[in-house]
Every structure is written in structure tokens, then in C-alpha cells.
Design brief:
The chain is an alpha/beta fold. Helices cover 39% and strands 15% of the residues.
């Protein structure tokens, strides 16, 4: 996802009591949450008395990530403390997008990416390369290229510079992001790469990425497929066609930006089964939950986090990332929504404990 960061200040919401949080989470995930740990008004980050999300994830072989990491956020001491404590993976917000990395042809700027990767290495975290190709965020010089062979050469150089520099440092890659129309039903979005290279451009860019780094795990990242059946089928038809052609693709990423409700129960399980039959992995890549502000928003949000994370784990997903973790730096399209697991002061919300309980139960 590409976002212009803003923090929306909505109405103040009431917080769940300790007893209510414990009862809610016990019923959601069947895992006992210590009462002291469930105090969402506790000092500091309120999670020091229980194992971190990271520790629970690592016990189960789960890659648990925070996406949307802007290197400027690392200047915030609390952000830099909570991120590696709770997560074993991270991915950049926009810093890998073309316009950020190669604003002029042949002139690469890795300053921001290097800082993110250096932070991850210091804290023994994996890094996902998000995202090499996107319908947005292309520099003007690139979109002035109209010759297909020249564009292929530019893509090859771009991929080689990035994937070689971060080989062994970025362990999986979103090669392409949001390639279908927003709500589905109209096929591939006719973005710049489609217009110059034609409808088979995805096969070409995956082959280029594989040729540059044959060991890299390559993913196609898409939004809203868990919520819109037409788009879900479109993505499956697209990916199964790539597999049938022998295109080197390793998996599909479900962004899982949720607005107002969770996917229908069983949908994530069926998605995983369908791609597993093709020999592909499925990851949740950018999860957040956007609700209208209300007295029960925290409880409803916790239920959605619980249901999605629990079903994903039970379905066999072992790579789950959220689109950030603190509302201090959250972007939302729902006025006043607070979509992430920690509030602006880094206090854990019921959504945190719901995720904790789902991991503990798993």
C-alpha cells in the first residue's frame, strides 16, 4: 500500500477494564491472559509481564512483521524500542518504491533503505522488500520510456542494483503490488507497465527478478481479495496462469486492510488451500482494522484481529505483517479510526492482547 501519512484525531474512546479485557480475550482465543498484563492503562508499554508477540511467534515458527516502517520513525525512542521487542520482521513504507530509490536514471539513493536494514540487522529482524513494482510512485523519467526493450533494460538494471545490494538482507520480495483494479471485475489495472509491455508484463518482471536473484522468494501482493469474491477469483486466475506458464513466483500476499468487518469465516482458509494446491505460499502483508470511533470500537477491533490471526495461523500461514503497530503513525481512510494494536502513547490496545492470545493458543 502507498500512503500519505496523516494522523486523524477522532473522538476519545473509553477503554476496556482489565476484567472485561481478560474475559473478552479468553472467549476469543481460548488462551488465558494474565490479568496484570491486560491492563491497557499500565505504565510504559504495558506488556513487560508477558512474553512478547515476537517470542510467541518465534516459538511457533511464525514471521511476525510490522510494515510501513519509515526510517524517520526510528528517531522516536519508543518506536525504536517497541518495534524489535514485538516483531521479528519489518518492511519499508515507501522507501523501496521506484521514485524513492532511483529518482533519476542510474542515480540510486539507498540512504533510507540502508538505515532500515541496518536497524533490522542490529535487532536480528528479517526484512521484506516491499515493493519493487507499483502502479504509483514512478519517476517522470521512467514513464517517459515508451520503447518496450528500453523499459525491460531499465527494470533489469533497477532490480539488479536493489536485489544485489540487499541479497541476504531482504529475505522475500513483493515484486508487484496492487496490479488489479481496486474492487476487481475489470482485470489487470492498465498501469504504465501494462501500457508499455502489454498484458503479460507480470510474467516478464517476475522472470527478471528471478534472473537477478534466483534464490529470492517472490510474491505478488494484492488488496481486498479477502473481502471481494470477484477480485479473489481474478487473482487466483491470474496467478494460476502464471504458474501454468512456469513463471517463477513463490507466493501471494493478502494486504488485509479491513474496514468495518472481518472477512467471512473460512475465506482465508479457502484462499490458502487454493494456492497451496499450486505449490505457493500465502502471507498476510499489511493488516490493519479501520472502524468508526465508538464506545465498543476497541472490543470490536479485538474480535477482528483475533478472528483473522487465528484463522490465518490455523490455515497454515506463517508470515503475518501489520501495516504499522502504533496509531501515532497510522494512516486511515475512516475519520477518527485507530487501526493498529498500540495507541499513540504506545499503550497496548485490546487488539494487541487478541493477537497475543491467538498466537498463544496456536
Amino acid at each position: 500500500m502507498t500512503s500519505s501519512r496523516r494522523v486523524h484525531r477522532g473522538p476519545r474512546r473509553s477503554r476496556l477494564t482489565v476484567a472485561a479485557t481478560v474475559a473478552l480475550l479468553t472467549s476469543l482465543a481460548g488462551a488465558s491472559v494474565p490479568a496484570a498484563a491486560a491492563d491497557t492503562t499500565a505504565p510504559k508499554n504495558g506488556t513487560n509481564s508477558i512474553p512478547s508477540l515476537r517470542k510467541l511467534a518465534e516459538r511457533s515458527g511464525v514471521v511476525l512483521g510490522s510494515g510501513a516502517v519509515n526510517p524517520a520513525y526510528l528517531d522516536d525512542p519508543q518506536f525504536a524500542k517497541v518495534l524489535p521487542r514485538q516483531f521479528n520482521s519489518l518492511s519499508p513504507e515507501n522507501e523501496l518504491k521506484w521514485d524513492w530509490v532511483e529518482p533519476e536514471r542510474g542515480e540510486f539513493d539507498f540512504t533510507k533503505l540502508d538505515r532500515i536494514v541496518g536497524f533490522a540487522q542490529k535487532n536480528h529482524m528479517a526484512v521484506k522488500g516491499h515493493g519493487l513494482i507499483s502502479g504509483c510512485c514512478n519517476p517522470a523519467w521512467l514513464e517517459q520510456i515508451t520503447d518496450p526493450d528500453d523499459l525491460r533494460a531499465a527494470i533489469t538494471t533497477h532490480f539488479r542494483q536493489i536485489m544485489t545490494r540487499y541479497a541476504g538482507k531482504m529475505d522475500r520480495w513483493d515484486v508487484a503490488t496492487e496490479v488489479l483494479s481496486t474492487f476487481g471485475g475489470t482485470g489487470l489495472d492498465q498501469n504504465y507497465f501494462y501500457r508499455v509491455l502489454g498484458p503479460d508484463y507480470l510474467a516478464e518482471i517476475f522472470r527478471i527478478a528471478h534472473s537477478v536473484n534466483p534464490k529470492a522468494k517472490l510474491f505478488l501482493n494484492e488488496s481486498l481479495v479477502e473481502s471481494y469474491p470477484v477480485k479473489r477469483k481474478e487473482l487466483y486466475d491470474l496467478v494460476s496462469g502464471l504458474v501454468a506458464e512456469g513463471v517463477p513466483i513463490n507466493g501471494v500476499g493478502l494486504e488485509t486492510h479491513l474496514t468495518y468487518s472481518a472477512p467471512e469465516p473460512g475465506v482465508i482458509t479457502e484462499i490458502v488451500k487454493s494456492y497451496k494446491a499450486l505449490g505457493l505460499d500465502v502471507a498476510i502483508t499489511e493488516m490493519d482494522v479501520h472502524l468508526n470511533p465508538a464506545d465498543d470500537a476497541d472490543a470490536q477491533q479485538a474480535k477482528i484481529y483475533s478472528s483473522v490471526v487465528s484463522e490465518a495461523l490455523n490455515a497454515g500461514i506463517r508470515d503475518i505483517s501489520f501495516w504499522g503497530f502504533t496509531d501515532k503513525y497510522a494512516y486511515t481512510w475512516v475519520p477518527g479510526a485507530k487501526p493498529l494494536m498500540f495507541d499513540e502513547k504506545y499503550r497496548p490496545k485490546p487488539a494487541f492482547f487478541a493477537t497475543w492470545a491467538a498466537l498463544a493458543a496456536h
